[in-house]
Write a structure and sequence with these properties.
This protein has 275 residues and is of the alpha/beta class. It has two domains: 114 residues, no CATH class; 153 residues, NAD(P)-binding Rossmann-like Domain (Rossmann fold), CATH 3.40.50.720. The chain is 36% helix and 21% strand. A six-stranded parallel beta sheet has the order 8-7-6-9-10-11, sandwiched between helices.
Length: 275
């Protein structure tokens, strides 16, 4: 979403040539719908269709089409077929069909609707070091972040456009209002708060079953303690099995906030691809 936001802002000042992957065959660097925006002169690109020689040639083609558009010359056919073989110096072996279109600020509403990716809701409980690192890592990824803490002073002054910051005291009171199908990440400043948030998530699961991922930061020892306390609150083993603790893809041993954030973001991306 950040690239799209930048595109819409820059269109207020100058037109661009939008290059979109229209269709693909075989092995290709990017999927249908991937896009990049090319502006006149040496202004940097926004987005990418996969890099390499394919993108270099597409950028040159887009700049020529944009120059034609600005000069009032007739437009070329919008679609261009590119075979990713020896002629492009790429060995992917597939075929990409690219769509070229010159766009202006008048096209912004349609572009916003067409190019905005579907975003997976993520609820992040905790505004500590890992929470801040995770918010930064998630910002350019296909997630809509709902960031919750019982201390409203912990949020940064500026956040990504797809981030909603909420002060909730008690913090677990925010759980019933989370978007359906949210991935939930729990990492508050307090183990007592963490326990209450997990309990609220499990209670919601019992009623609605609409939280496909509940992740709790911490060690196996922490989860063993939490399990006993949650069992005392009436939650079954099957219900506790819905909680992932520790969180993050396995095999990453670093404990720096940024390392944990990358490991957790990777785990969420894996969940996006899981039916």
């Amino acid at each position: 979403m950040k690239a799209l936001h930048c595109l819409l802002e820059r269109l207020k000042c100058a037109p661009a040539c939008l290059v979109t992957v229209e269709s693909t065959q075989g092995s290709v660097p990017r999927e249908c719908g991937a896009w990049m925006a090319v502006f006149a002169g040496q202004e940097p690109l926004l987005g990418t269709i996969g890099g390499g020689h394919l993108e270099l040639q597409a950028m040159q083609e887009a700049r020529q089409r944009l120059a034609d558009h600005l000069a009032g010359r007739p437009a070329r056919p919008p679609l261009l077929r590119q075979a990713l073989g020896p002629s492009l110096g790429q060995c992917c072996g597939g075929v990409v069909q690219l769509r070229f279109e010159c766009v202006t600020a008048a096209d912004a509403p349609a572009l916003r609707q067409r190019l905005a990716p579907p975003l997976q809701p993520v609820a992040l409980f905790g505004g500590g070091h890992v929470g801040h690192a995770l918010a930064r890592v998630l910002a350019p990824l296909p997630f809509a972040l709902h960031w919750v803490d019982s201390r409203d002073e912990v949020f940064p002054a500026e956040v990504d456009a797809d981030t909603l910051c909420e002060h909730s005291d008690p913090v677990q009171a925010a759980v019933p209002q989370l978007a359906a199908q949210s991935f939930v990440l729990i990492m508050s400043f307090s183990h007592a708060e963490d326990l209450d948030i997990v309990a609220a998530c499990l209670a919601r699961q019992r009623q609605r079953g609409d939280l496909p991922f509940i992740g709790l930061i911490g060690s196996r020892t922490k989860w063993a303690t939490f399990s006993h306390r949650l069992q005392a609150r009436g939650f079954s083993d099957a219900e506790l099995a819905q909680v992932t603790c520790p969180i993050g893809v396995p095999g990453i041993a670093g404990k720096q906030p940024e390392v944990i954030a990358v490991a957790v973001a990777a785990q969420l991306l894996q969940r996006l691809d899981t039916p």
